[in-house]
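In response to the reviewer comment on reproducibility (Comment 2.3), we provide here a single inverse folding case reported in full, input and output, so that an independent group could reproduce the run without further information from us. The structure tokens appear first.
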């Protein structure tokens, strides 16, 4: 997902932040397991830190889709081919490096990568959004504010009812779906076109809303785990609190105004952070690393350790993607020569 010219560095920084938050989410519940009732009773402080961190970071994927909606996806064959090449190149090379290093890789790893199953759930959902983006763009451009607001209200009401509060009858998949991505994409379009009053708030007001919409599901999660041993659906991408928190944090960055070639350069490869650490074989090591560290390290050192490791993985992934970008440019030049 290559940076588009004209985008400010504030949003490019948010692109990096979103991918780093993905790694932090995966270093918590997905690596250590969800907070249990026993953990909350025996180690309440540690358990609360984990619950708060999970809820602060769960906005990650939603932020990335809000960015796509804010600027609008303009699909072309070239962009589609570049995206597919990025996914396959990084995924397949990561798997092969693991195999050569003696790391156990699932038998179906290559097959999963070729049809974007298992590890890369985000990919097929995003590809669907990518393909139907022109239809969504056309609706956003031609619908009246009232029509647009009505569609969004209906969508999120249905997602709340069928994809959050009850069993997922509506196939929203807790937000892990193209259907949920469509809602987020249109929400970003609406706020950019018609959200003048909301955007007029100060950055710190948006930050307060982010903290509020994080605190509420933290309370719900804690209550649910304490009394029933489960989170009561608070930690889901499809949760209205998570959607509201995501939009609030997004608007904090909307208030920033700066230009940085370094940030833009790093952000142009931010998606590689997801692709590398989530690759089959790699992700198993990722989970094992943090699970082992959590068991062996003093609690006060675990968070700095996670931040240091995820930062290192993020930078390594970006540098890896720069190699991929050079190869892609060479392929394009070769194609041009052959066509001539």
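Designed residues, in position order:
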């Amino acid at each position: 997902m290559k940076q588009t010219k004209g985008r400010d560095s504030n949003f490019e920084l948010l692109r990096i932040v979103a991918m780093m938050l993905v790694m932090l989410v995966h270093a918590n519940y997905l690596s250590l397991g969800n907070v249990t009732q026993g953990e909350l009773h025996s180690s309440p402080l540690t358990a609360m830190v984990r619950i708060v961190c999970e809820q602060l970071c769960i906005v990650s994927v939603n932020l990335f889709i809000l960015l796509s909606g804010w600027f609008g996806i303009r699909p072309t064959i070239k962009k589609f081919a570049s995206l597919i090449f990025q996914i396959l190149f990084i995924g397949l090379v990561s798997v092969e490096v693991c195999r050569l290093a003696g790391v156990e890789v699932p038998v179906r790893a290559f097959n999963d990568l070729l049809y974007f199953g298992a590890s890369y759930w985000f990919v097929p959902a995003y590809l669907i959004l990518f393909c139907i983006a022109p239809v969504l763009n056309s609706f956003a451009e031609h619908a009246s504010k009232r029509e647009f607001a009505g569609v969004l209200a209906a969508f999120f009401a249905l997602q709340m009812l069928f994809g959050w509060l009850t069993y997922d009858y509506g196939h929203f998949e807790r937000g892990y779906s193209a259907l949920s991505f469509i809602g987020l994409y249109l929400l970003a379009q609406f706020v950019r076109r018609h959200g003048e009053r909301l955007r007029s708030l100060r950055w710190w007001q948006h930050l307060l809303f982010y903290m509020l919409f994080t605190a509420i599901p933290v309370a719900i999660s804690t209550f649910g785990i304490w009394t029933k041993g489960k989170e009561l659906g608070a930690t889901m991408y499809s949760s209205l609190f998570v959607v509201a928190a995501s939009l609030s944090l997004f608007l904090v960055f909307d208030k920033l105004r700066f230009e940085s070639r370094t940030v833009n350069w790093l952000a142009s490869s931010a998606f590689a952070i997801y692709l590398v650490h989530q690759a089959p074989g790699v992700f198993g090591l990722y989970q094992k690393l943090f699970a082992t560290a959590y068991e062996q390290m003093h609690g006060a050192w675990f968070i700095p350790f996670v931040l240091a490791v995820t930062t290192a993985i993020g930078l390594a992934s970006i540098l890896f993607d720069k190699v991929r970008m050079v190869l892609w440019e060479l392929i394009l030049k070769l194609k041009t020569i052959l066509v001539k």
